[in-house]
Amino acid sequence: MAKQERAVRTRQSLIQSAAEVFAREGYAAASLAHISRLTGVSNGALHFHFETKRELARAVEEEAARRLRTITEDAPVDGARGSALQGLVEATHGLMSRLAEDVVVRAGFELGGEPALGATAGVRRYWQEWVEDMLERADREGVLADGVTPERVAPAIVAATVGFEVLGGRDRGWLSGQRIDAFWELVLPQLTGEAV
Amino acid sequence: MAKQERAVRTRQSLIQSAAEVFAREGYAAASLAHISRLTGVSNGALHFHFETKRELARAVEEEAARRLRTITEDAPVDGARGSALQGLVEATHGLMSRLAEDVVVRAGFELGGEPALGATAGVRRYWQEWVEDMLERADREGVLADGVTPERVAPAIVAATVGFEVLGGRDRGWLSGQRIDAFWELVLPQLTGEAV
Question: CA geometry: angle at B82 spanning B80 and B85, to 5°?
C-alpha cells in the first residue's frame, strides 16, 4: 500500500475511533491517548494528523456532514408536485437509520451541542437549513395547505428530528422507522391539508 | 441567621452556581474549585455539602425535577373533557419559558444527556412519562381522534419538546411561545380530529 493511501486510511480510522470515544464518553472527557490506542497507532501518528482534540472533533463533524449530505442528496426531489415533502420524509427515515448504525454521524450531531467547542453546531445547522429548504420547495410546488408557511412549520419539524436524534443517542428505539412514521402521520395532514 | 438556615442557603447557592457552570462549560469540563469560587465559599464548604461532582450534578437534576413538577402540577387537568390536552399544551409553554430563564432547569435537562453520568436521564424521563400520562388521560376523556393511540403519538410529542429544549440551550429563540404555538397548531388537529 502506498504511503499516501496508508495515511488516508489512518486518518479515517482515527476519525472513526474518535467518534466512538466522543459518543461514549463525551468530548470533554475523551483523551487523545485513548483514541490513538483504540486506533492502534502511536500518539505521534495521531498528532501527525490532528494537532488538537478540537481539530479531531472538527474532522468528525465534517465527515458526519459529508455522510449527511449523501442522505439529503439521495432524496428524490425533482420539482414535481409533492417531491419535496416526499424527499423530506425519506431523508428523515434515512437520517434516523444512519444515526442508529453509524457512530460518526451520531457523534457529529452530538458535537454540535458540546459547550467546549463553541457555537458552531455544524451538522445540526446543515440539517436545519436543508429542512427549511425542502419546505420552501414544497411551498413553491403548491402542496402546502392554506395558511401554512415554511417559516412557521420548519422549527417544529427541525425540533422533532433533533429530539429523536438526541434521545436516540441513549436508546436506539427512538430512531425506529415506526416512530418516524408516527411523527409524519401526525404532521403531514395539517401541512398539506389532506389526509395521509 | 441560624446555622442550619445558612447551610440550606449555601447548598442552594452551590446548586445554582453548579448549574451555571455545567450549562456553560459542560459537566465533564466543570471544576469544583470554579463552582465554589463562583458561589463565594471555600472548597471545604463545598465538600461539606457535596463530596463529588457527580453528587452535585445529581442535586442539580433533583432541583430541576422539583421545579419541573411545579409546572406539571400547575397544569389545570381535572378530568373534564379536553383538560388533559389543554394541560399538556400549557405545560409545554410553561416548560419552555422556564428553560429560557432558569439555568437550573436547563442544566438539569442537559445533564440527562451527559455520557459521564450514565444512564439515568432523570428530568427528561420524568417529562416523557408525564406527556405519556396526559395523552392517556386525553384518551380516557375521549378527545383523541379515531385511530390515534397515546403510545403512537407520545414519542413524536416528546421528541419535539426535547428538540426545542436542546436547541434552546444554544439559542433561546427556540423556546419562544410562537414556535411552541406553531408546533401545537401542526399537531393538535390530527390528535383530536378537529380544526384548532
Answer: 125
